[in-house]
Design a protein that fits this description.
CATH architecture: 3-Layer(aba) Sandwich
Structural class: alpha/beta
Largest sheet: 6 strands, mixed
Shape: globular
Strand order of the largest sheet: 6-7-8-3-9-10
Number of strands: 12
Strand content: 15-25%
CATH class: Alpha Beta
């Protein structure tokens, strides 16, 4: 049978080594397979057109991928489908070769906005422990191993010293690091982060990115949605550009061309030279903001 990926639209950049299949449903062994495989995924919300339309890509273990696209491009919908928050989708998603229906414990998800009562008397350590429910089981007390996983995750994001602090007392950047720790406490090798820099200042954003750089160096697969072209070009292995469908997926220098960016932003983008760097200017005024 032909390769897993069908012929892409003109201008689309596909992974250098597409995964092959021998059956209609991909069947991959954990060893040597992508950390995340998405095949012909379409997803959306009842009563609306699909926010994600027939997207296929594969992320290899340890890669860092920046996901870009205009407001309303479907980035958040893509992430929600991957982690199982949109069960009614078509296509196929697997993590390390396991169907997403049984593999959600293999992925850590940091949504764009956390629905949290910041006045609730929960400590940083308590919030991170919430992610261990699948491992602990309902109506059971955390074990020593669970607390060790929580403390290790907090140490990895530089928040161990504040583990006893009430969550509402933290700054915006510190809160984001706590929620990255909550995802890591699942002992995952894949992190999905939806606009983690939204609402934090530049200094806090750099602290978060330093944490992600360290996790990447440790072999964690990082997939992050952002609107920051410079960040994507300088701090990530690959860029996935989308606007409901996949526009391009490849090295930053392959994706950041006038032709490819024009397909995603449809004339709302300009390129200018500043010294030896290319500056991308995007006008998203008036674009729908129903899904980032």
């Amino acid at each position: 049978m032909a390769g897993l990926f069908s012929a892409p639209p003109a201008g689309t950049i596909v992974p250098e080594a597409p995964v092959k299949q021998t059956d209609q449903t991909p069947s991959l062994s954990p060893e040597g397979c992508p950390s995340l495989l998405v095949h012909e995924l379409s997803a959306g919300y009842p009563g609306a057109r699909a926010a994600v339309d027939s997207i296929s890509f594969a992320v290899q273990p340890g890669e860092s991928v920046a996901v870009l696209g205009p407001n309303g491009a479907g980035k958040s919908t893509l992430f929600k489908a991957i982690v199982g928050l949109l069960p009614h989708h078509t296509g196929y998603i697997s993590l390390y070769g396991q169907d997403c229906a049984i593999s959600h414990t293999l992925i850590g998800y940091v949504p764009q906005q956390e629905r949290v009562d910041w006045h609730f008397p929960a400590t940083v350590r308590d919030v991170v422990m919430m992610s261990r429910v699948r491992q602990i089981g309902w109506f059971r007390w955390p074990r020593h191993a669970d607390w060790e996983a929580v403390d290790e995750a907090l140490a990895r994001v530089g928040m161990a010293d504040l583990r006893g602090r009430q969550i509402g007392e933290l700054s915006g950047g510190q809160r984001r690091r706590v929620f990255i720790a909550r995802a890591l406490a699942q002992q995952t090798n894949v992190l999905l982060l939806d606009e983690p820099f939204s609402g934090v200042d530049a200094a806090a954003g750099e602290e978060i990115m330093a944490v992600l750089d360290a996790l990447h160096a440790d072999g964690i697969t990082i997939i992050l949605a952002t609107h920051d072209f410079h960040l994507a070009a300088t701090r990530f292995d690959k860029v996935l550009l989308m606007n409901r469908r996949l526009i391009a997926f490849g090295l930053p220098r392959q994706v950041f061309t006038a032709e490819v960016l024009g397909q995603a932003y449809q004339g709302q983008i300009g390129l200018m030279m500043e010294g030896q760097q290319t500056v991308v200017i995007v006008d998203e005024h008036g674009c729908p903001d129903t899904d980032n």
